[in-house]
Structures
1.
Amino acid sequence: MYSLRKPVKKPVLRSLLATLLIAPAFFAHAAGEKAEVLHWWTSGGESAAVAKFAGAYRAAGGIWTDTAIAGGDQARSVAINRMVGGNPPTAAQFNVSRQFQDIVDQGMLSNVDEVASKENWDKILPEPIRDSIRIKGHYYAVPVNIHMPAWIWYSKSAFKKAGIDKEPATPDEMFAALDKLKAAGLIPLAHGGQPWQETIVFLAMLANVGGKDLYLRVIRDRDAAAMNTEAFRKVLLSFKRLKSYVDTGSPGRNWNDSTALLISGKAGMQIMGDWVMGEFVAARQVAGREFGCIPGLGQNAPYLIQGDVFVFPKTANADQLRSQKLLAGVLVNPVVQVEFNKLKGSIPVRSDLDASQMNLCARTGMEIMKDKSRHVGIGEVYLTPDQNGALTDALTAYWNTNIPVEKVQKSIASALRN
Ligand code: GAL
């Protein structure tokens, strides 16, 4: 277990300490290795977090060029197009998912087996992450964090104003709290109306209302009989019911603009990944003081596992190869892992780190990670990009228009059939 020094009060001193701890390991090899890193971390919290990677890479002697493209779908398309066009970045962000399997199959990525075996990834990575990046025995991506995309966030001041004195622990209690927020004239649910955000809210309902068994039967096994059950119908109705708590400004809104509504106390709740915490941290709000975080409704609610990875496009350029190697080492460095994840809202991908420096919500997540029986992957872990896209289309259509639930059950079954 890596134990990190006690936090130093001044942030400047802290990053200096991090620099000093990282530098000796890399300076020996580094000589101005240039890395262009493509990612979609453009919100306040995300930018602060990725700056830690950039700072650590520079401290290790490299030269970091940041290519930030807003929106995961857009950023991934640009990365793939550039690889296909023969002008790839040094590294590109993807999710823990099957999003990059095609480019692996086409031989476009270098494997990162060297760093994987040095860091013992077979042992220290959680299974859903390890299985998604290890393809035919080789590792094709460097994982940098574990995100849980379906947390329920709430504003303490909004809860107080609405007279909610207990965190909801069941779906019924969640709806009762939303009713109270509405009655108090607040925006009950801050939702960013974009298809991927609707998919997240649906997965949260599938996990919390449907439970782990149903979740896996639908999302992992693509079991048509499960999609035909009364239990699944109830999940879809609960999902749609949430729409009635959303404000008129929701369509098209970014997730972080929804979080801003919680930060200002105008809205009560948001169902979204723990990257939200990065926004609270950037706004100097503290978990347990200004905001609360609920990992799931009930003690044994499934814990959805997602994460970010970087892939390394294959290159014959020896300079680029050196840059990729240097970058891979920096990304998984234990000190960098803690510094980055504290700002990102995620938890370190390595299970051998000391959690004491992480905040309340991250520590809760790290504790739950110890209980494997609660782990499930997100849709993208089990589904191909096409299946996931078709599921998202069906859910967005249901959320935004009036379609009978029975019809949606059928369209989801057909989206997941192939
Ligand atoms: C996810 C990613 C997170 C977060 C989020 C919103 O796909 O895993 O790191 O950045 O998008 O941008």
2.
Amino acid sequence: MRNILFVFAFLSLAIHLFAEDGSRLWLRYEPLPENIATHYSGKILYISSVNSETGKIIEKEFKEAFQAMTGKNLHSAKMDRGKNSICFEINKKLPEKYTIQTKPVKNGNYISIESADDKGLLYGMFHLLRLMQTQEDISNLNIRETPSYNRRILNHWDNIDGSIERGYAGASLWDWNDLPGTISPRYTEYARANASIGINGSVLNNVNANPKFISKEYLLKAAEIAKIFRPWGIQVYLSVNFSSPAELGGLPTSDPLDPAVRQWWKDKAKEIYSILPDFGGFLVKANSEGLPGPQDFGRTHADGANMLAEALEPYNGIVMWRAFVYNATSPDRAKQAYEEFMPLDGQFHKNVIIQVKNGPVDFQPREPFTPLFGAMQKTPLMVEFQITQEYLGFSKQLAYLAPLYKECLQSDTYAKGKGSTVAKCTDGSIFPQAITAIAGVANTGNDTNWTGHHFAQSNWYCFGRLAWNPDLTSEQIANEWIKMTFTNEPAFVEPVRQMMLDSREAVVNYMMPLGLAHLFAWEHHYGPQPWLAIPGARPDWMPSYYHKADAEGLGFNRTTTGSNAVSQYFPPLRDRYNSIETCPENLLLWFHHVPWNYRMQDGNTLWDELCYKYQAGVTSTRQFQNIWDKTASYIDKKRFDEVQYKLKVQTRDAIKWKDACLLYFQTFSRQAIPDAVERPVYDLEELK
Ligand code: GCV
């Protein structure tokens, strides 16, 4: 009875101390059930040779977490690897980033976490805590971990005025007005959350970069953020505007071959490193969507990137040069990055890496992988994913993105025969490269729960976990995240995991199934506007450029009889995509213009199949509502209610997508919507 009372008192204390508002993310360290807590008793924290700031963080975090989960205090000891102790130890000879092992000691055993540096110990500590949080057996451990990518980076599209481009979780976390004098406690919380999932870099500002970010005034502000991030193993990077020499430095030009411009960047790099000694480097969006770049001066992307690379080289900084380029006159936007960058392969300085969006257009709910992966073999490439849900329902809709990220990373490019996946082509295992990296456009903001939708936290989480190890399964990651974020109760974990795993495909189905892309409303990219036609606007910003609906059929002919984008892929993929019979149906309309009465693999016509896909998307969202409604008793009311409300909005908006797209495409197909599909509830004119 006393035990029960104790547990009860302990639980209510925990509940009292922390509101369940999502602010604690996956680092909630909830009390473990008593039988498990007993199993963990008696362990002593032992830290050797770690006197750094990071060492102090490890000691504090581990003690507090252990206390919160087990109710027991740990004691620090420097000398003795005693029975039941947990030992954090630097081992310079260790090839892996860290190991966690159960090792024998007199009368028992202890847990040893070893790494060549304190950052590895930090990751090892979070790994061990994760095992405890998810109630895994830690009695016999033999874990060896090495990250797949050296640089695992969040890109913030945050502006100087505190707004965030494509941000759906409030304003920027960075209080530029108050920095450097006032330091928000959230900087530490942000760094801690990132460290817990292995993220080790942060680009603080938008790729649509204001030149001011590299002024002395702003460097001093960024330096304060970097100071907080440093012991958590996170390097600061900045996006730079290519016209900075002219706009910030007052030079008459920003031509990358002009000696004064080159010197300006060298001086700027020197200044940056005097203020930010471990600065990571530059991210650059150039000659893209109206931003300046080397082509303004008749120079190439390589000329521009190499000039910056030379300036950063003495300090080991890198340049992440984006391949997101397209122009209004191109007959196929999906081909452009390849056309502009392939001729430059091998011409980049060794500290340049080309940052390439996962798909050739723009973070659509489904795209094939960008064909530059595997093709540029003499230049390091890094994948850029979007974590913020610009094209997947903002923070209003549930879309767990691990399946999307994995679909790209596991795609076989066939660059060096079968098995040349995008992951292997970018992690250094097929093409040796000095720099390996991966980036995700962050979905964080100053909302209490960080990401707007409670489930959007899982996308931040899964990006970090996959950046560390792309072989983890979406299911495994969802499992961990749910247990740490909500509860270990199987009656909650299992249905919610299934809901998450189904959610991305649901969004594809009710937004743009079968390889359709970019049917989005003008500018905000939330709802459907497949009919959009603004006189005089850029054609490649209009949905009809992508869907090509006409009386004959639907889809973009990218085969050898069309734009020939298929030729940018290696055989046999090229041939598979080129043939309507072998093209995967989930990309059919990406590569083919398909007649409305074309027979799909299941015998349905294209038109009927399209209708069934939209219906399947809507049906899934209703299932999500049903699943969620049954979970009320397992979690706190606040998060339950907030998610319940968002799932209702998602169903409502999925119906809008279905009605808008089917009613619009019906004006071309001139066929009835099959009986098994819900009748439209909106009129096309009303939706328009
Ligand atoms: C930061 C898309 C988005 C833009 C974004 C751009 C990019 O076009 O809509 O908001 O700009 O991608 O990735 O540079």
